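Schema walkthrough. Field components (list of strings):
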Amino acid sequence: GNSVTQMEGPVTLSEEAFLTINCTYTATGYPSLFWYVQYPGEGLQLLLKATKADDKGSNKGFEATYRKETTSFHLEKGSVQVSDSAVYFCALKAPNDYKLSFGAGTTVTVRA
Amino acid sequence: GAGVSQSPRYKVAKRGQDVALRCDPISGHVSLFWYQQALGQGPEFLTYFQNEAQLDKSGLPSDRFFAERPEGSVSTLKIQRTQQEDSAVYLCASSFAWDHQYFGPGTRLTVL
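Field assembly_structure (string):
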């Protein structure tokens, strides 16, 4: 079946540090890949997505590249802010399917 | 515009009670999804509606769980005879197309 494995947290960083959250997946075919973010007290929000190999999704300074050869979709940001403190979820959607399969989430805390 | 709303935001139930969780999707969204998120885990798919038709209920964990969307808009997730293992956050999402699901803030259910 389809599954997502993401780096365990929690992750604590200082402001302006570099952030990487690893995500690998198992799926047949070419799934769409997503990063969702959940800020404290809020619902899940789509952060970025990629729908085919070598696509790069980007938003709010975050980037992730769909790597078919390593079945990975790692999330990166060059300089984090306190406001980036949140839980980050990697997810996939199989071709011609509607449901999302999520990783367990990574809690990121950025200190001033 | 208004996003997906869910009510109540918090629900405490005694074991054996029935509960009903409401989801108001974004107006015009055809697809509606329910997910269950256990503590420290990613969301897990429960069920999917297209308009009023429940096309997939493969993720419902037992026959105590029932969902409906009678007019193709508001949806209700009902859990009968709640058990402690039902304690989780229940997330509703809606979408116009399958590639972007908009999530509500969730209902946190605690079964004592």
